[in-house]
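Lab notebook, bench 4. Still working through the backlog of constructs that have no structural model yet. Next entry is a single chain of 379 residues. Request: give me the structure tokens for it.
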Amino acid sequence: MSNPRVYLDNAATTPLDPQVIEAMTAVMKDVHGNPSSIHAEGRQARTTIEQARRTIAKHLNASIGEIFFTSGGTEANNMALKCAVRDLGVRRIISSPTEHHCVLHSLDSIGEQEDQVEIVQVELDEKGRVDLADLRRLLADQSQKTMVSLMHSNNEIGTMIDLQEIGALCEEHGAYFHSDTVQTMGYYPIDVEATAISFLSGAAHKFYGPKGVGFIYINGDNIIKPYLDGGAQERNMRAGTENTYGIVGMATALDLACQEREDREQKIRSLRTYLCEQLAKDFPEADLNGDPTQGHYKVLNLRFPPSPKTELLLFNLDIAGISVSGGSACSSGTDTGSHVIRALRGDDDDAVNIRVSFSHHNTKEEVDRLLGVLRSVLR
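Model written out:
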């Protein structure tokens, strides 16, 4: 009997937790009403959704009136950026070249459609860390209403920002602060009451919930209009019949992730440390992309010098039953390479990079299988 596959691409998506499946299935069976209907079935669905909203708000220390359900992180990030320009008078957005494509492409769209909006990129160091001195310099220009949009953890290399530090800088200079927290939601504690943040986003499938559902936190001081036109759902902020069982699955998954955060983190860190130690012994020529000490503990981006043996490394790993990636899953099917690595290393870099992203479900034996294939292919 062949070995089961080893899944090490948890930054792309995570498997559904069995308890999440159970909670969603119960809703599918028993809660079929439209949450906007006023009859008993509708009221039952509405109550179910509001219970989920309270759960998510509790884990962010937010008001329930600041949580709005979306189709995922992409919609949430688009909503924050484009509504800030349209409704809050933002005329300058400071971001970085290593943001997720949903942010970068939103900024491209804003720049093309809004002649009066300036898009500025903050400087990064070779590990993808924000140059705080450059950010302060950019924020010192207060001639235009400004928003800073920087992701909490980079989805490809794991490099992180300090939410409170960046938030305090933005508050000091009167700027809005948006952060894509899709990769860190459920993995790190986030307290919006203690952090000067205007908008943040979450996607259920990154923390063992269902795909196709997410949320946006909108600070109560920010009054924006709906991003989607239609009905009056989500207190007139997000048109469309709510995905009741998806929302329940997301709330269940986040509740589990927050309750088990420390235990999950300990398991993942031990696997990551073990892989790093073995790589240093067996592949001294290999390097790491990103910040290995201050980056997200679930992400490890490995860099191998170019050679005939590394050219088909991802393919050979897949054939051997091991799932890793070369970068963002949103870029799969293209051969343009990673925009993150390109921003940090330049266009002429020809090293081979693979992203290993862990789960608390992974085991030391699975890491050993990865190492065995790497030794077989590269040695």
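Notes after review: Residues 261-282 form the longest helix (22 residues). The radius of gyration is 21 Å. Flag for follow-up if needed.
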